[in-house]
Design goal:
Number of helices: 3
Largest sheet: 6 strands, antiparallel, barrel
Distance between the termini: 28 Å
Number of domains: 2
Helix content: 10-25%
Oligomer: single chain
Strand content: 35-45%
Shape: globular
CATH class of the largest domain: Mainly Beta
Structural class: mainly beta
Radius of gyration: 17 Å
Length: 208
């Protein structure tokens, strides 16, 4: 479990295929990550670290970074993990830590598309179009995870094509996450609120 409070910005420095020969195109990737300012002193092999909101398992560790194996299925369902570049990092939550964001599983539910990212006064407005299948989980003042960052929804607009939601980003969030690099047309990882997922299941006719 995670909180959606980014602990550090890391950098994917190299990628290596986990397959060979004719199967290479369908294989996953081993990502080597420079952990930046993330404290790795309590991280062991097998521990979980979220990269841009996707929970990954540490398979190698060094003094300054770590490596994770990402399956082809995960690569097909996420954004920002298939090329070198900056990523938001968060270690798995412990019971002694504050829940500063909201309960996050690290399982990406879908990809959104940035429609607008513009400065508004001292803050920034981020508008993302989510898949229609996620629209029912988005609510005014509800929670959403974008690239591993716990955020509050300010506005929801439904359409036949999907569901656009608006978020206000304060300067601190811009400074300490990779959201500063977003542009219109860019895809982002989305995770819906965990509680909303269970509420839907409990209220569905099949569960009655």
């Amino acid at each position: 479990m995670f909180t959606g409070i980014v602990a550090a910005i890391g950098t994917i420095t190299s990628l290596a295929s986990l397959g060979a020969g004719r199967n290479a195109a369908d294989a996953g990737l081993r990502l080597t990550v420079d952990a930046g300012r993330l404290d790795l002193s309590d991280v062991a092999l097998g521990d979980s670290i979220a990269l841009n909101g996707a929970c990954m398992t540490v398979v190698e560790k060094s003094a300054t970074g770590f490596a994770v194996d990402v399956s082809r299925e995960s690569l097909n369902c996420t954004a920002g993990l298939d090329a070198p570049g900056e990523v938001n990092l968060e270690k798995a939550l412990t019971l002694s830590e504050r829940l500063g964001g909201h309960l996050v599983s690290g399982h990406v539910d879908g990809l959104g598309t940035v429609r607008r990212f513009e400065a508004v006064g001292e803050s920034w407005e981020l508008v993302v179009e989510a898949p229609r299948s996620l629209a029912k989980y988005l609510a005014y003042k509800g929670s959403i995870v974008v690239n591993g960052v716990s955020l509050t929804v300010n506005r929801v607009t439904d359409s036949a094509e999907g569901c656009a939601f608006s978020i206000n980003l304060i300067p601190h969030t811009i400074e300490v996450t990779t959201l500063k690099h977003l542009q219109a047309g860019r895809q982002v990882n989305l995770e819906i609120d965990l509680i909303a997922r269970y509420v839907e299941r409990m209220l569905s006719p099949a569960a009655q």
